[in-house]
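Practice problem: predict the structure.
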Amino acid sequence: MKKLIIPVCALLLTAGAVLLSLKLNKEEAAPEADSSEFVTITDAVPDAILEIRYFSTYNFVGERIDGYLEPTALLTKRAADSLRAVSDELLTLGYRIKIFDAYRPQCAVDHFVRWASDVSDTRMKSYFYPDLDKSVLFEQEYIMEKSGHTRGSTVDLTLFDMNTETDVDMGGTFDWFGPESHPDFCGNPDSGEFNGDGSVSPSGMTITAEQFANRMLLRNIMVKHGFKTLDSEWWHFTLKDEPFPETYFTFPVKQL
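Answer:
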C-alpha cells in the first residue's frame, strides 16, 4: 500500500505545482500589465525634453505620485511615431516639445482619487486651483476614476523655444484647474481667431493674442499629425487611432 501512496502524493504535488504555474503565467500575461507595445518616448523622439511633474512634488497633489518610479515618459509605439512627426516639424520652426506626462498607470489615477477625496488636503491650492473649492473636483470632472492617459496614447506637453531657451508662453501653467486652461479661452480654436474676452475666468484673468497663438501652434501641429484635442486642457492630446481604446494599463512608469 505504501508503494501506491507515495506516487499518488507525488502526482498531487506535481499537479498542484502545474496549476500554480499556470495561474502565475496567466497573471503575468494580463493585457493591462503588458508593456511590450510601449516605448520610452526619448528613444522614439530624441529631441523631446522631459519635465515629469508626477515624479516630482511640483504637481497639484504636492507629492510624488504612485507608479512613477523614474522621471521618464512612455507611450504606445503608434503614438510615439506620430509624436516624432510632430517633433520633427516643430524643429524646423525652432521649437522642441517638452513633456509633462504621457502614459499614466491606473495606480496613479487611484492616487489622484484618494487625494481628491480628502478635502482637507489643500497644500497646492494656490498653485493649481485657487478659484475652486476642492469638493467640486469630481463634480466638474477635474478628477476621474479613469483616465485616457492610462490607455497609453495620450500626452501632456508644451513648446520649448530653442532661440530663447525658455518654455513658450502659453498664458497658463500645466494642470491649472479652471477655464483659463480651455483651448477656447479668449478665442476660437477652430478658426484660430483671438477675441480677447477673459470674462469667463472667475478671477478675471485673460491671455494675450500671442499666448493664444502659441497654444494654437501646438494644437494645429498635433492635430495635423493624428492627435485629437481635449476641450478643457490646451496641453492634452490623444492619438485618434489609439491602439488600446479599452485597456487601462497597470505597469509602472520606468525606463523600458
